[in-house]
Amino acid sequence: MESNEASLSILMFPWLAHGHVFPYLELAKNLTKHNFTIFFCSTPIILQSLPLPHHLPITLIPLHLPSPPELPPDLHTTKHAPPHRMPLLRETFHASKAAFSAILASLRPDILIYDAFQPWAAEAAAKSEIPAVHFATTGAATYSFFYHPRLPPPPTSTSTPASWKPFWLLALISETATSSVRGFPTSRGPATSS
């Protein structure tokens, strides 16, 4: 992008684990080199721990989760929450949908980049007519392992699997071709090829 062009704003929204936050932060750093305005949204405890150089144009946006007594704000990260509190952390994170929607409405970014653990973020963006892109922080093999069980079941038929399998695969390929990044639905419909 040329410096006289208007800068696009991106809201980045990773899951509450440092293994997700740091790849998002590296992507944010690289995007700033191309004249993007970056907003980085996470819990205050995570934002405080980020090694962010002051010269980068990245604005940190705190997302305040509900704080039940069993999960005070200093545990709003997988790094600090004990393993038995992870389900509560996930529930508390999902309970922040309204707070995130308010942030989205306030910032009105041009694009939302969200993580796999909060598909509701893409839904909130769609309601505001903001395109949403999923950024996967894992390798393709790991992603395939977790995505495979979520595939639709093959069609039921009295015929043998050999007779329906090619048609099922064609339907899956067709569905994937009309979705965004690697089969994850977009918030605005089918993806377009470049």
Describe the structure concisely.
This protein has 7 helices and 5 strands, in the order E-H-E-H-E-H-H-E-H-E-H-H.
Structure description:
The protein is an alpha/beta fold and 194 residues long. It folds into two domains: 9-137, Glycogen Phosphorylase B (Rossmann fold, 3-Layer(aba) Sandwich), CATH 3.40.50.2000; 154-194, no CATH class. The chain is 38% helix and 12% strand. It has a five-stranded parallel beta sheet, sandwiched between helices. Strand 2, helix 2 (44-48) and strand 3 (58-62) form a beta-alpha-beta unit. The radius of gyration is 19 Å and the shape is globular. It starts with 8 loop residues before the first strand and ends in a 17-residue tail after the last helix. 24% of the residues are buried. Mean pLDDT is 80; it is low at 163-168 and 176-194.
Overall pLDDT: 80
Radius of gyration: 19 Å
- What's the level 1 CATH class of the largest domain? Alpha Beta
Question: What's the end-to-end separation, in Å?
Answer: 17 Å
Instruction: Report the major sheet.
Output: 5 strands, parallel
Helix content: 25-40%
CATH architecture of the largest domain: 3-Layer(aba) Sandwich
Would you tell me the structural class of the helices and strands? alpha/beta
Q: What's the number of structural domains?
A: 2
Proportion of residues in extended strands: 5-15%
Morphology: globular
Uncertain residue ranges: 163-168, 176-194
